[in-house]
């Protein structure tokens, strides 16, 4: 992601490699696991911004397809970063589209499509934020007398093994010992 964004901005392989190496070194001390909050900002968001910059320079139907694809994947993986792509890339592409509309250039139509495709992650974010009212009639019945009374069950704290830093907190659940 960093490589492609730097290459799109500077049109230099040297700058692109420098950005990629910097991004790799900057995140080297962090345990890198494939989580949505790692993939979205480090891989997909730079691609979305690079495609938006491409759309500002020379909007084509191919660029529109790339923006649509990365927007769809970004919306499904981490919708918040899809909104970040819209906030960062939308004004760029929208400004270019308005500029080309004023000058009556043929690129305006493709730029408008590219700008509209930046909106693809919005429904995913809306669905993520939407919480319907909860119907308690479908809740399962309480399974114990403690649950019926509304009291919390007692927490059992005993060391699982002598040297390990884990404790059993009840019902076979383990947690890291806070002490």
Explain this structure.
The chain has 179 residues and is mainly α. Helix content is 61%, strand content 6%. Helix 1 (2-10) packs antiparallel against helix 2 (13-26) and helix 5 (79-102) runs antiparallel to helix 7. The chain is flat and about 70 Å long.
Number of strands: 3
Radius of gyration: 25 Å
Largest sheet: 3 strands, antiparallel
Query: Strand order within the widest sheet?
Result: 1-2-3
**Strand/helix succession:** HHHHHHHHEEE
Sum up the overall morphology in one term: flat
Give the arrangement of secondary structure elements.
Blueprint: H1 2-10, H2 13-26, H3 36-57, H4 61-77, H5 79-102, H6 107-117, H7 122-129, H8 145-149, E1 158-159, E2 166-170, E3 173-176
Antiparallel strand pairs: 1-2, 2-3
Helix pairs in contact: 1-2, 1-3, 3-4, 3-5, 4-5, 4-6, 5-6, 5-7
Quick structural summary:
This protein has 179 residues and is mainly alpha-helical.
Question: Main traits of this protein?
Answer:
single chain, 179 residues, mainly alpha, three-stranded antiparallel sheet, 8 helices
């Amino acid at each position: 992601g960093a490589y492609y964004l730097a290459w799109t901005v500077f049109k230099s392989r040297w700058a692109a490699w420098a950005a990629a190496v910097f991004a790799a070194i900057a995140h080297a001390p962090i345990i890198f696991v494939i989580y949505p909050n790692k993939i979205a900002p480090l891989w997909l968001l730079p691609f979305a911004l690079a495609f938006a910059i491409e759309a500002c320079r020379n909007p084509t139907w191919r660029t529109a397809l790339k923006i649509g694809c990365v927007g769809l994947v970004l919306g499904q993986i981490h919708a918040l970063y899809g909104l970040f792509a819209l906030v960062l890339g939308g004004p760029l592409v929208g400004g270019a589209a308005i500029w080309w509309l004023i000058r009556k250039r043929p690129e305006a139509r493709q730029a408008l499509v590219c700008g509209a495709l930046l909106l693809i992650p919005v429904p995913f974010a809306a669905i993520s934020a939407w919480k319907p009212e909860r119907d308690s009639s479908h809740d399962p019945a309480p399974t114990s007398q403690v649950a019926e009374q509304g009291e919390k069950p007692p927490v059992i704290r005993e060391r699982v093994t002598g040297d390990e830093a884990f404790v059993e907190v009840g019902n076979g659940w383990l947690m890291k010992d806070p002490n």
